Amino acid sequence: MSLEKKYIIIGVTGGIAAYKSAYLVRELKKQGADVQVVMTESAKSFITELTLQALSGHPVLSEILDPKSESGIEHIEKARKADAVIIAPATANTISKINMGMADNLLTGIVLATTAPVFLAPAMNEIMWKNQITQNNIQSLRNYGFHVINPGCGFQACGGEGEGRMAEPHYIADFLDKFFNDKPLKGKKVIITAGPTVEPIDPVRYISNHSSGKMGYALAKAAYEFGADVTIISGPVHIARPDKIEVISVKTAKQMLEAVRSRVTGTDIFISCAAVSDYTVEEPKKQKIKKEDNSDELTLRLIKNTDILSTIAHSEDRPMLVVGFAAETENLEEYATKKLRKKNADIIVANDVSDTDIGFNSDNNAVTIFSKELPPKQFSNRLKTELGHDILIFCIEYLKQLNQKNYNLS
Ligand code: C5P
């Protein structure tokens, strides 16, 4: 396990715990990382640049517009180059600025401009940490995909004891090591369908649904973080294209099926998360349908779309693991287990869409996972980003079970 060849930016902000960042630089260097320290102005009141320069082997950076740097736009260059950005200590002030999207110094500029994972190790007085404003900022940053390494409890520099002490440098280094090296899906190819499909009625109208694609994209990110080579086949969504994940954009169910079919050979995991329209218009009109003055009705003839999940799960190219979703308003278990058999899936992730506060279009979801090999597992209401991770962990457990079984058979 190591951080060999990783270019890691350590952001140091102005808190007493800034002295601990010297130890963090040393821990990461010991693991082979190339460490670049970026300090805010107030951090310099707590620890010298020279100390961090000597330990990291690079001059410390802090100017956002630096005439001495070759390009003068250091934040973009460094943001691009970084494999990870870790802010330790992260003060309440910097946390709040990042959450607002501010880029008023080199560090916040880098955070806004990077697509690398960003880790925050908050450090502050207990009351500041527990303040609802800070907690809301932290929650919001988690929603954006930031990794928060929670502070610990203990003696505080301001006197007294409480939660808010920055996590210890060796713990932060282990956290990063785990993030980069715990890759159970390394070498695995994963295809995920996401979002809705749209079925044209005429050149300006279509049939679709409320799927936002958030669940599918969260699954893709989790699969990527577990080391997989990921492709999303996506219906129209309003989500920024993730870096390092291939996204194939489609509109109709037919296009989605073709896109999956043409890439499925050699795929290890297929996750059918898209809300595929069950029906499509038999003959979409070439011209816009005009309102008829002499009739109050319009009849559209719909025909069934091919079931992508079932087609792939019954094909010769069937990936080792096939996962489907089921949105139900009643009899969750009965319908989900029926779907497992009928569609030849290994896993069905079922959610109760009768609760309109979660599920479709929301940031949260609650699901129960049914499978052929493992007992059902329930996941209570949580962020889709977290749920994506949980579902992938279930998939990894399932793959282990399958491998075990095959091993026992051979
Ligand atoms: O049968 P039902 O639509 O409830 O099944 C939902 C599951 O089937 C989801 O995983 C969805 O992605 C998939 N599906 C599909 N193609 C369709 C309809 C549903 O892949 N035409």
Characterization of the model:
It is built from 13 helices and 19 strands. It has helices at residues 18-30, 49-56, 74-81, 92-100, 106-113, 126-130, 132-143, 169-181, 214-225, 253-261, 308-313, 332-342, 384-409, and strands at 7-12, 34-39, 84-90, 118-122, 147-148, 152-155, 161-165, 189-194, 199-202, 205-207, 229-234, 246-249, 269-272, 279-281, 302-304, 321-328, 347-352, 364-371, 377-383. Strands 12-11-8-13-16-17-18-19 form an eight-stranded mixed beta sheet, sandwiched between helices. A five-stranded parallel beta sheet has the order 2-1-3-4-5, with helices on both faces. The longest helix is centred in the last third of the chain and has 26 residues, at 384-409. The mean pLDDT is 93. The radius of gyration is 25 Å and the shape is elongated. The chain is of the alpha/beta class and 410 residues long. A hairpin with a 5-residue loop joins strand 6 (152-155) and strand 7 (161-165). Bound molecules: cytidine-5'-monophosphate. Cytidine-5'-monophosphate (C5P) is lined by residues 193, 253, 272, 274, 276, 278, 305, 307-309, 324-326, 339.
